[in-house]
């Protein structure tokens, strides 16, 4: 069984710049893969810089380990924490150097798959989903004020799209001295896919429609392209980014 990855990022139909950044890295033998999506904030210039800095820092730290070989769970978690810390420090340093970048930050969601084991890390409201047959399940919890309100029963989940401050984050890279990424693990079976995305995707296409759209395309690349194209057809107001990791049978 082999792991493959692909991704696309698009400016959307309303924005003047793309503040999302994506990356993926597959080991030479196809048994390990790293995928990342970041969604920047803090003005068009700041957002672009923050997301790209985060992606570059994480790739620089983790890609050599992904290529190197299988590592233990504890070492893997420590490496992810180190990568996120590096990204956070680099963004904070740029904020301090340039007042125009004083409010910049970024979300990040990353997954590191080794064989059938996937480690997922995230900060903010970029998401990771597991797609198994025709079933879609979200594997991350948004770091947002609205999600906190849903969790404490203040609002129903169906109310969230109507909340004016629904995109206000409770945590982002660059805005905290010690970022605390949420970590989780799952087993990835043959034929299953992990989908990483910025919040522009669920805002443009209801989740209930995703599996139907994906069923129309056979390759991972075509599936990602279909999601992006449908987002644009729906008038995506935000940047839209998708990275898909497939465990082939």
CA-based shape = globular
Largest sheet: 5 strands, antiparallel
Structural class: alpha+beta
Distance between the termini: 5 Å
Oligomeric state: single chain
CATH topology: Phosphatase 2c, domain 1
The SSE string, one letter per element, is EEEHHEEEEHEEHHHE
Report the top-level CATH class.
Alpha Beta
Mean pLDDT: 94
What helical percentage do the residues reach?
25-40%
Structure, explained:
This protein has 249 residues and is of the alpha+beta class. It has one domain: 4-Layer Sandwich (Phosphatase 2c, domain 1), CATH 3.60.40.10. 33% of the residues lie in helices and 29% in strands. It has six helices and ten strands; from the N terminus they run βββααββββαββαααβ. A five-stranded antiparallel sheet has the order 1-10-9-6-7. A five-stranded antiparallel sheet has the order 2-3-4-5-8, covered by helices on one side. Strand 2 and strand 3 form a beta hairpin. Helix 1 packs antiparallel against helix 2. It is globular, with a radius of gyration of 17 Å. The model has no long low-confidence stretch (mean pLDDT 94).
What are its keywords?
249 residues, Phosphatase 2c, domain 1, 10 strands
Q: How are the SSEs placed, and which strands pair?
A:
Layout: E1 3-10, E2 20-26, E3 32-41, H1 43-68, H2 73-97, E4 105-114, E5 117-123, E6 127-132, E7 135-138, H3 145-151, E8 182-187, E9 193-197, H4 200-204, H5 210-215, H6 220-233, E10 240-247
Antiparallel strand pairs: 1-10, 2-3, 3-4, 4-5, 5-8, 6-7, 6-9, 9-10
Helix pairs in contact: 1-2
């Amino acid at each position: 069984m082999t792991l493959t990855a692909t991704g696309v990022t698009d400016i959307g139909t309303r924005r003047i710049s793309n503040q999302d950044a994506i990356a993926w890295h597959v080991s030479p033998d196809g048994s390990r893969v790293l995928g990342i999506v970041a969604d920047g904030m803090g003005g068009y210039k700041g957002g672009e810089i923050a997301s790209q800095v985060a992606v570059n820092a994480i790739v620089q730290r983790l890609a050599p380990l992904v290529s190197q070989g299988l590592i233990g769970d504890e070492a893997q978690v420590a490496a992810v924490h180190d990568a996120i810390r590096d990204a956070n420090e680099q963004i904070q340093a740029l904020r301090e150097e340039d007042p125009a970048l004083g409010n910049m930050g970024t979300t990040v969601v990353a997954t590191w798959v080794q064989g059938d084991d996937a480690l997922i890390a995230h900060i903010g409201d970029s998401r990771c989903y597991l797609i198994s047959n025709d079933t879609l399940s979200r594997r991350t919890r948004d770091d947002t004020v609205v999600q906190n309100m849903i969790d404490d029963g203040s609002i129903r989940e169906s109310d969230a799209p109507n909340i004016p401050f629904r995109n206000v984050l409770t945590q982002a890279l660059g805005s905290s001295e010690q970022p605390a990424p949420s970590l989780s693990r799952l087993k990835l079976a043959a034929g299953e896919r992990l989908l990483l995305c910025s919040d522009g995707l669920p805002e443009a296409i209801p989740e209930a429609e995703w599996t139907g759209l994906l069923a129309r395309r056979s390759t991972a690349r075509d599936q990602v392209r279909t999601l992006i194209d449908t987002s644009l057809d729906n008038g995506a107001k935000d940047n839209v980014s998708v990275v898909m990791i497939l465990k082939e049978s």
